[in-house]
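User: I'm preparing a small set of examples for a lab meeting where we compare how different chains pack in three dimensions. I only have the primary sequence for this one, and I'd like the structure in token form so I can line it up with the others. Please keep the answer compact; I'll paste it straight into my notes.
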Amino acid sequence: MDPVLALAGFGVGVVVGLTGMGGGALMTPILVLAFGVPPLAAVSSDLAASAVMKPFGGFVHARHGTVNWSLVRWLCLGSVPAAFLGVLLTRLLGQAHEVQKAVQLALAVALVLAAVGLVVKAYVGSRRAGAGRPEASARSIVVRPLPTALLGATGGLVVGLTSVGSGSLIIVVLLALYPSLRANDLVGTDLVQAIPMVAAAALGHAFFGDLRLDLAAAVLIGSVPGVILGSRLSSRAPGGFVRAALIVVLLASALKLFGVANAYVIGVPAAVALVAVAIAARRRIGERHRAASGDVVRREEAPIPG
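Assistant: Understood. Below is the structure token output for the 306-residue chain.
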């Protein structure tokens, strides 16, 4: 067992538990680039590890009530058969790397759009909160069955082809269909729906003999405690913190899919994270200042006893 690989699995597990995404977009490139694993073996081993890892994170979110089970059912109705179909298409396409490249580029664009959507969502959410209209919870969302199942099928097909998108692509889907869903519920629902989808894709690869159990086991040793830790943070953390983490991982995943150098993959999201922290800190200071000013005004306006 490679301890460095287990440590990498722990880091990816924390990211997956915290944001519901990043597994395929992070772990597969790490296996290929850092450990010299053949791409097909990396894809199948990552999928197998995700199929075991994600239930731990999903269980934490389910206990805290941040899962919309109706959404999960309709997403899985489309994603599970499509994921297995994606694996079959991979075998039929053979060395047609241009097809997978086109899919990855399209996914990268979608991830950037999702990051922009989260920024807009944060702005709209702050205005709604100021007007006394908070974000909707997981249980109050009205599910749209047919679009949800169709877009789940799209996500499953991409996962079967590339191993990327079990979390990130469905995050995009959920943001587009249910913009009022809270960030915590978005992550919890996404984590749970991904379990049967990645399991179907992993079974497809195992059927064709691509799976390497030694790699999957090494990743799992680190990723299982990582995803539990990340999920506990995500289910309890403020929505703004989870949203900021989602934006950072979306951008990092998109840059990696675009083929950008690793330095930029790390640097650009880190810079965005620093700006987000600075903005949040400034907003928090402003809120405290306004609250303190309001207390002073109320004390001055209070009637003098006697």
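A couple of notes for your slides: Residues 262-306 form one domain. The mean pLDDT is 75.

User: Perfect, thanks.
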